[in-house]
Design goal:
The complex is a heterodimer of chains A (about 250) and B (about 240).
Chain A: H1 2-32, H2 45-59, H3 85-93, E1 100-105, E2 111-114, H4 115-120, E3 124-131, E4 137-146, H5 147-154, E5 162-167, E6 173-177, H6 178-181, E7 187-192, E8 195-196, E9 206-208, E10 221-227, H7 240-243
Parallel strand pairs in A: 1-10
Antiparallel strand pairs in A: 1-2, 3-4, 4-7, 5-6, 5-10, 7-8, 7-9
Chain B: H1 11-35, E1 40-41, E2 55-56, H2 78-105, H3 108-112, H4 122-133, H5 148-170, H6 174-179, H7 182-185, H8 190-217, H9 220-228, H10 234-238
Antiparallel strand pairs in B: 1-2
The chains are: A alpha+beta (about 250), B mainly alpha (about 240).
Chain lengths: ~250, ~240
């Protein structure tokens, strides 16, 4: 009886130690390969980390689905937009000529772009859906400058891990990892369905991240910061979404 | 005199049963919370408040952009609901894999779940259906395993409804859609996937209700006790 329980105890101890070691190794590997999301420390962090790690391992290079021109939604839904403020109104009155996109952080050459300058860069177009976390969706053609191109122009440093982007709307900012930032379908969007990007849909400048849900596609983008850590931004959770209870990663 | 106990359910079955129960209830609660932010359903690839729904649930919404006919808007619960929905999904899927590995490797499915051709004969089925319709209790020799209708419903849940709910759920993830487009296109689009996710949920909830009713008819405390501990404690058995 005693022997059995001692053997059981030793076996359980060894299994426990092996499990703990395995877990520690897995966490270290996940950290090294950037598989831990910035909001991993919140209440539902473990599930969030599993989702982000699994999707990143499988999807680093996968493309968002693209559709035929005939599938473009005739009645896209812009969703509600909070009042845009005096500064936005002033820029709008000036036909957005004074709109600037500032790019700084871990870059060799911090730069600032006007919309005209962005339009003079190589453009890319895609017909993709945008899906809201609430469940609704629509398909549109989006075109603009791939974010990767802008990051290349400013010379993003090799140790960069995230790009933080901010809206003209106060307290609306977000970030994506380099997998999404350098992804060919991630667009600084200037145009929708062949025309100007309408204000309700994020005009004059919206970041499209088609492999993630709608709320990562921040409207009215005014600045980008390239960084190796999200700790210094807001509460350090990666975007304003987790500060309001929503997940940072929205690929699901 | 030593008593001989035959555990009704193996330990793995008991543990996975309750882990699945917990995660299913969490998925159901958070799923309902997410659903009320847009209680409209569509077919095909796209759908929003500007397009015609397939059908609309007559409930209020947690978004004022959705026309519901109600004069109020419910509080937004999507943040924690989405977090918990996916965390519970991980628990359910990992637990389900453990259960499947056990069920196939240890003969649990072969002994207790799969049906012999004779079980599906009209007379055998008719007998079992008749007994269920009379709300008859299972006979003693059946108490050690599952009866035919029970096996059929468990097979349906384990090998049809659970795979379908996982599939239709994954088909709503924009990242997964990019990785495996066929997951979505086979279903007819992401809005079709969402609508099917809802209907599979309805079937799972129906199963849950009937399952609990059957447990109640067969003796609630005994059956629940048997799913918690391997043998019935004396105190429970007396009740």
């Amino acid at each position: 009886m005693n022997k059995i329980s001692r053997r059981k105890l030793i076996t359980a101890g060894l299994v426990g130690a092996a499990g703990a070691t395995g877990f520690a190794v897995a966490v270290n590997l996940a950290k090294r390969y950037g598989l831990i999301p910035p909001d991993a420390g919140v209440l539902y962090g473990p599930g969030e980390t599993l989702t982000y790690a699994a999707q990143r391992l499988l999807s680093r290079h996968s493309m968002a689905r693209e559709f035929a021109r005939s599938e473009i939604s005739k009645d896209p839904f812009a969703n509600e937009v909070d009042p845009l403020g005096i500064e936005f109104q002033r820029l709008r009155d000036g036909a957005f000529v004074d709109w600037r996109l500032a790019v700084d952080g871990m870059v060799a050459r911090p730069m600032s772009f006007s919309l005209a300058e962005l339009k003079s860069l190589p453009q890319s177009a895609q017909i993709t859906f945008i899906a809201c976390e609430e469940g609704w969706s629509y398909i549109a053609e989006w075109s603009g400058v791939p974010l990767a191109h802008v990051l290349n122009l400013v010379g993003a440093l090799p140790q960069a891990r995230y790009v933080v982007y901010r809206s003209i709307q106060p307290d609306w900012w977000d970030s994506i990892d380099m997998s999404d930032a350098l992804h060919p379908q991630t667009l600084l969007t200037l145009s929708m369905n062949g025309g100007e990007l309408p204000v309700p849909f994020g005009g004059p400048l919206r970041l499209r991240v088609p492999r993630q849900l709608g709320y990562k596609n921040v409207k009215y983008v005014t600045s980008l910061t390239v960084t190796d850590s999200l700790k210094r931004f807001g509460k350090g959770l990666g975007s304003s979404a987790p500060e309001g209870g929503y997940a940072w990663y929205a690929g699901i | 005199m030593p008593e001989i106990f035959h555990p009704r359910h193996p330990a793995i079955v008991r543990i996975t049963h309750w882990l699945i129960t917990l995660s299913f209830l969490a998925l159901l609660l958070t799923g309902v919370e997410i659903l009320i932010s847009h209680p409209r359903f569509y077919w095909g690839e796209i759908g929003n408040v500007n397009t015609r729904p397939l059908f609309t649930l007559p409930i209020p919404s947690s978004r004022d952009t959705v026309p519901t006919g109600y004069g109020y808007v419910l509080p937004d619960q999507n943040g924690w609901s989405r977090y918990l929905h996916f965390e519970a999904a991980w628990v359910a899927v990992l637990t389900g894999l453990l259960y499947l590995a056990f069920g196939f490797s240890k003969g649990h499915f072969r002994r207790n779940l799969f049906l012999a051709p004779s079980d599906l004969s009209p007379t055998s089925l008719a007998t079992d259906i008749a007994r269920h319709l009379r709300f008859g209790r299972p006979t003693d020799d059946e108490a050690g395993s599952y009866n035919v209708l029970q096996r059929l419903s468990y097979l349906l849940v384990i090998f049809v409804l659970f795979p379908l709910i996982i599939w239709t759920g994954l088909a709503m993830s924009p990242a997964i859609e990019g990785m495996f487009p066929a997951l979505v296109t086979v279903l007819g689009g992401r809005q079709s996937a969402r609508t099917m996710h809802f209907f599979v949920t309805i079937f799972l909830v129906l199963f849950l209700l009937i399952h609990v009713l059957m447990v109640y008819l067969a003796g609630f405390r005994k059956r629940v006790g048997a799913m918690i501990v391997d043998r019935l404690p004396k105190a429970v058995e007396r009740l």
